[in-house]
Amino acid sequence: MRRILPFILAAALFCGCSAAKVEEPGEAEFENSIAASPEPIEIPLESPSQNIEEAPPPDIASKALDIPAGMFLERFEDDHTGDYLDYWLIVPPDATENLPLLVYLHGDGDAANPSGLEQRGINVYLESIYGEELPFVVLMPNTRQRSWTEGTIPETLIHLVEDVADSCASDKERIMLTGHSRGAIGTWYAISHYPYVFSCAVPISCGCDDPLDYEEMASVPVWGFSGSVGHDGSHYYPAMQRIAEEINAHGGDASVTMLEGCDHMSVLEKAYTEEVFNWMLKQ
């Protein structure tokens, strides 16, 4: 891997981002082949597995990482695919080896837009929960086109995840994947084609029309979320439910929670909670 664009942000990790509602410009509407439009209902925020009030402390080694703390914009060049991905890497203060790795896939509005991703990515919600004391390293790749499933992008993404996990000496048993909108499509696709990489998945507000291998997906615990307003309630929630049912029919553990009153963007603040991150850390 050749890393360039080494723009180290010397200010606070998340550059003053707050957890206020964010707006993502240009977020494309996706249509899933679902005819029925269920009445919006409020479903209690319950995880697929219970008793997750607090995640156990990470089983970390004492050796400190040879990587400075902060938020960095870098580039991964994949010699195998010939493709590349820019990405944000967030390393918490006093990070040690064997920390989990959280991977976030963005939606359409931040394609080829690293600065937009910095302002609207999962770092916004993590900062409101943890401040600078993150219990994991965070990877936020940035695609140059509105897709996580086409061409060499999926393979390049997996090579990036593996490269960062190696360079950060991450816990390979706790590489956690989440994505919103188009990033949710990428999340479903990734656990179908590369289930051995990820310990769990949290897709938010979209299904996936690409062919999926439900038998492979059954090995990855899934907790999905969707809003109840607009396309989230009428299209994305039933599409996600259909995928979860197929995963469970193949012996998996998948569920989807509808968050009452949330639309395609406001769902993020309700979905990205400490409870959900604790669930991810325990998988």
Overall pLDDT: 85
Distance between the ends? 29 Å
Weakly predicted, low-confidence segments: 1-44
Number of strands: 9
Strand order of the largest sheet: 1-2-3-5-4-6-7-8-9
> Count the helices. How many?
8
Radius of gyration (CA) equals 18 Å
Order of helices and strands: EEEEHHEHEHEHEHEHH
Helix content: 25-40%
Shape, principal axes of CA atoms: globular
The biggest sheet amounts to: 9 strands, mixed
Task: Assess the beta-strand content as a share of residues.
Answer: 15-25%
Alpha-beta content class? alpha/beta
Model description:
The protein is of the alpha/beta class and 283 residues long. Helices cover 28% and strands 19% of the residues. The chain has helices at residues 114-120, 123-130, 153-167, 182-193, 214-217, 231-249, 267-271, 274-282; strands spanning 7-9, 70-77, 84-91, 101-105, 137-142, 175-180, 200-204, 222-227, 254-259. A hairpin with a 6-residue loop joins strand 2 and strand 3 (84-91). Mean pLDDT is 85; it is low at 1-44.
What distinguishing features does this structure have?
globular; 8 helices; 283 residues; 19% strand; 9 strands; alpha/beta; nine-stranded mixed β-sheet; disordered N terminus
Quick summary:
The protein has 283 residues and is of the alpha/beta class. The chain has helices at 114-120, 123-130, 153-167, 182-193, 214-217, 231-249, 267-271, 274-282; strands at residues 7-9, 70-77, 84-91, 101-105, 137-142, 175-180, 200-204, 222-227, 254-259. A nine-stranded mixed β-sheet has the order 1-2-3-5-4-6-7-8-9, sandwiched between helices.
